[in-house]
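Tutorial handout. Part one gives the primary structure; part two gives the three-dimensional structure as tokens.
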Amino acid sequence: MKLAVVGATGMVGEVMLRVLAERNFPIDELLLVASERSVGKELSYKGETYKVIGLQDAVDAAPDIAIFSAGGDTSLEWAPKFAAAGTTVIDNSSAWRMNPNNKLIVPEINANELTAEDKIIANPNCSTIQLVMVLNPLHQKYGLNRVVVSTYQSVSGTGIKAVQQMENESQGIEGDMAYPYKINRNALPHCDVFLDNGYTKEEMKLMTEPKKIMSDDSFNLTATAVRIPTAGGHSEAVNISFNNDFDLEEVRSILTQTPGVVLEDDTANNIYPMPINAHDKDEVFVGRIRRDESMPNTLNLWVVADNLRKGAATNAIQIAEYLVANGLV
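Part two.
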């Protein structure tokens, strides 16, 4: 197994290396890949030192799998070159997600769609992954009608520059700005760029990707995405209207039995999901489960996950694990 990590020097790339080691992914040869300015830099994996190589050298090496976290432009240019060399690409950017020719995969939901012919596989948006992990089992039981989601997203979702901006502001230091305004002690209803319809790209991802992952466009979604000054972990307030009525204890039971989902729903003891507790964990946490008393067949809940792990690195590596386990690479 020859594995390439493209974007190895970035925030998600660093987490990928940690998760690969933790899960003991079978690697015979590891290629750490980044842009030209990082070529030659040394990184450590399982106690060994590796030199970062460039993209063309990585293509020429023809790895079995290449996990990309290097941005949409890099993916659009280089993923097809890897695929042409016989490599299966798992891409973290938004470049291929809504392309009808590419699968959009959350392994617990739709890994069985994958075949050996899928050479560029899309990893969903971080906020989408944690959302569908909760929506899918409930949809199977009650039928989704409409979903309203409001996100509270960590600055780590923007990248290292945003994390540094928040840290600088908390210490009263002037520095580079990842956002148009201060993020420390603030909340920005502005994740990604604004589109002509008034929504941001992040909100549109949340509104379109779940339908593709769940292979169902019979329900409606709307979203508001907000950036808050937390260092890691995304949170979501989710309002779900079903076609059929539900029992709250049954909802809790369904979620408890869903692989990859952890129920934290004991308000009498102040137990509910928080990003500080989801840090460095691969599970999706759900709590604050209650009826929406203003609407029939409608549920409110709160969903939290580490956006760099299940929201990015872990989900991509789970896809790679599925490919290997099923002989698809």
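Part three, for discussion. The chain has two domains: 2-124+312-325, 127-307. The first strand starts at residue 2 and ends at 6.
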